[in-house]
Write a structure and sequence with these properties.
102 residues; two-stranded antiparallel ribbon; mainly alpha; 3 helices; 10% strand
């Protein structure tokens, strides 16, 4: 899996290749990176606790509850996709990075 630093570098390279590396779009890349980090945290929590987990109700009884990280991970991913769309970056117009190692 690509590191967040490499993803950021790749997105900025795509902006440069499209002549769109202006402050506004660089800011959106920073937002994208933030959402990546948040989504990774949600994925980590889901891996540790699962999609459902046992907890105690307000009255002290054990209950099974949906892990809010599932919903949050989807929300963060949706925001990342919206940012890519705003930046005009999609698979069909990606320029290869010569420094990319397969």
């Amino acid at each position: 899996m690509a590191s967040i630093a490499n993803i950021k570098k790749s997105l900025i390279l795509q902006l440069e290749n499209n002549g769109a590396n202006v402050d506004h779009f660089i800011g959106l890349v920073e937002d994208y990176v933030w959402f990546c980090k948040q989504e990774k945290e949600m994925q980590k929590d889901i891996k540790e606790r699962g999609q459902l987990f046992e907890t105690l109700s307000a009255s002290g009884n054990p209950i099974i509850k949906e892990n809010p990280s599932v919903k949050n991970a989807k929300m963060y991913n949706d925001q990342k996709l919206k940012i890519l769309k705003q930046l005009g970056l999609e698979a069909k117009n990606v320029v290869d990075d010569p420094d990319d190692i397969l």
